[in-house]
Amino acid sequence: MKDLFSTGSALYQQARPSYSAEVVDSILQHVALRELAWDCGAGSGQFTKGLAPYFQQVLATDLSTEQLAQAPNLDNVRYEQASAEHCPLADHSVDLITVAQAIHWFDFTAFYAEVRRVLKPQGHIAIVGYGLIQFEHAELNQLLHDLYFVTLKGYWDAERRYIDEEYRSIPFPFQELATPQLFLNYRWRSQQILDYLQTWSGLKHYQQQHPTLQPCAALHDFFSRHPQQEFALSFPVLLRIGTV
Fold it and tell me: Which GO terms of type biological process are on file (predicted)?
């Protein structure tokens, strides 16, 4: 399991999108027992906080202690540094395992062995994420696509392709359930958008290799021509749910 996000943990917590109640509900409708959930690869708790109201206890783990330090303090949530492939839970103790925007970094074989070890009979696993940001504004959307597909081509980790392929190409050796098509919808100003882009691993790699270049210059120019404007945007939700 890779740790690419310890640096900039506070920005990650601030700038990354949160998951809607609709996404959480689409998972929980399948989960009758709600004693213990394991949010694996929890980062700074973007998905954890949506689970917490519905379970007696939630264990949220991540490889990055810096990310976990940014997570919200919730009475029934325990945060613990642990890899996805070695968790501190007892055999057959978990009702639901969630992985939000992180499965592509895992060792699939080792993680799925842990899933089968800790899930209760008929327990569920939900793989959640979101795809490339889309803007209603055509010029802004094109600039974003140019950054993602042209400027940053070759700077993304190989695992990023699993998100581009909407998690359909990851191994998923479980009895799979049908899921709805969902979107995360927002209206963001320019600084929110730029902050979000700074959490991209591909942009981080580019800036490390070319510290004097400005990969977002065209976006900065666009925003200078649209000061104080809010932009409608959406993220397509990636969701796979299964049971053992």
Answer: methylation
Q: What is the pTM (predicted TM-score) of this model?
A: 0.91
3-state secondary structure 130-187: ECCCEECCHHHHHHHHHHHHHHCCCCCCHHHHHHHCCCCCCCCCCEEECCCCCEEEEE
Q: What is the CATH code for 9-243?
A: 3.40.50.150
3-state secondary structure of 40: strand
Secondary structure E strands in the chain: 36-40, 57-62, 77-81, 94-100, 119-130, 134-135, 175-177, 183-188, 231-243
pLDDT, average across residues 196-207: 96
Q: Measuring CA to CA, which residue among 236, 130, 135 is closest to residue 183? A: 236
What kind and span of H or E run contains 49?
helix 48-51
Return d(Cα 188, Cα 181) in angstroms, integer. Answer: 22
Return the bridge partners of 77, or none.
58
- Binned at pLDDT 50, 70 and 90, residue 233 comes out as very high
CA distances from 182 to 53, 167, 235 (A): 21, 14, 9
In this predicted structure, the answer to whether residue 5 has a pLDDT above a threshold of 50 is no
Q: Which two structure tokens, joined as six digits, stand for 121?
A: 């009979």
Q: What is the pLDDT of residues 158-180, one digit of tens each?
A: 999 999 999 999 999 999 999 99
Question: Is the Cα torsion angle 191, 195, 196, 197 positive or negative in sign?
Answer: positive
